[in-house]
Design brief:
By secondary structure, this protein is mainly α. It contains six helices and no strands. Helix 1 crosses helix 2. The termini are far apart.
Length: 139
């Protein structure tokens, strides 16, 4: 009788362990998919922000890759769409920073937004600031 009880308890423990492992694996998979999606969106947004900052110099190159953005107004609209989509996945800090960039597209708001994205993706802050990046770009 004792061996049957041991088998039942052992079997039940195994089933519970499998259930927990399955749940954790599924949760991990969802987090990885979310991370991949967020990383892809942020990369696209950074490129759009760069295009916004350097529209006159790079509009022909952008139009080769994104013919659906023939004018600056179309690009602005695309950034607003990304902001609205960001409500689904972006941190509050990214949404606030991107909103500031859209309102006032400057190198400073670009850097602030990129740093917010970096922090959201990788949980990393930076000691760099706008001046650091300006110095790097000059070299």
């Amino acid at each position: 009788m004792e061996s049957i009880t041991t088998l039942i308890i052992g079997g039940l423990g195994g089933v519970i362990a499998i259930f927990i492992k399955s749940f954790l694996d599924q949760n991990q998979q969802v987090r990885l998919q979310e991370f991949d999606f967020k990383q892809t969106r942020y990369k696209c947004i950074v490129i759009l922000m760069q295009a916004r900052l350097t529209w006159q110099e790079n509009k022909e190159q952008l139009q080769r890759h994104r013919p659906d953005l023939p004018t600056l107004d179309h690009l602005k609209s695309e950034l607003n769409i990304e902001l609205m989509n960001g409500l689904l996945f972006a941190s509050d800090e990214v949404i606030t920073a991107l909103s500031s960039f859209i309102e006032e597209p400057t190198f400073s708001t670009y850097v602030t937004t990129a740093f917010a994205m970096r922090k959201d993706l990788y949980k990393k802050s930076s000691k760099f600031n706008e001046d650091t990046f300006k110095a790097i770009l000059r070299n």
